[in-house]
Amino acid sequence: MYMVYDADGGLLGELAYVLGTLRGRHCGLCDITHGRLREKPEFDTLRCSLGMPVDVWHRNEQTPEVAAFTAGIEPVVVGRLDDGALTVLLDAAALDACGGSVDAFATALDDAMTGAGATP
Q1: Which of 9, 32, 81, 97 has the most CB atoms around it within 10 Å of its CB?
Q2: pLDDT 10s digit of each residue in the chain, 120 long?
Q3: What are phi and psi of 35, to 5 degrees?
Q4: Side-chain half-sphere exposure of 71, counting CA atoms within 13 A
């Protein structure tokens, strides 16, 4: 599974994100995974409980394959199906609907994985 922020990593990426938030821009995945200064412990617990590898990337940290698939649709959660195909599990609207709640995200993710046949 791949979770991709609508933000770039690194010092300049973080600065751009902070400036963007001051202008009203946000990333629904960031709201779920992070508090004010660091990753939410409950998100880390959830990620460890999923029973599969989970990569959480900034836009500029993705593999070329995943970047080509997610271009322009970040933030997004992507799953890899048994046949190797990538599929969108949660798009930006679904992430926003979680309202920053890790519990709501866990429920939405479980529903999406079941619907995609991607349950581990």
Answers
A1: 32
A2: 999 999 876 666 565 555 566 576 678 998 999 877 788 999 999 999 999 999 999 999 999 999 999 999 999 999 998 899 999 999 999 999 999 999 999 999 999 998 776 555
A3: -90, -155
A4: 6
The C-alpha atoms of residue 108 and residue 114 are separated, in whole angstroms, by 10
| Gap between the Cα atoms of 41 and 102, Å rounded | 10
Report helix, strand or coil for 119: coil
Q: Where are the domains of the chain?
A: 2-116
Q: pTM of the predicted model, to two decimals?
A: 0.84
Q: Residues with Cβ < 8 Å from 30, sequence gap 6 or more?
A: 5, 6, 7, 17, 75
* Dihedral Cα 91, 107, 48, 117, nearest 10 deg: -70
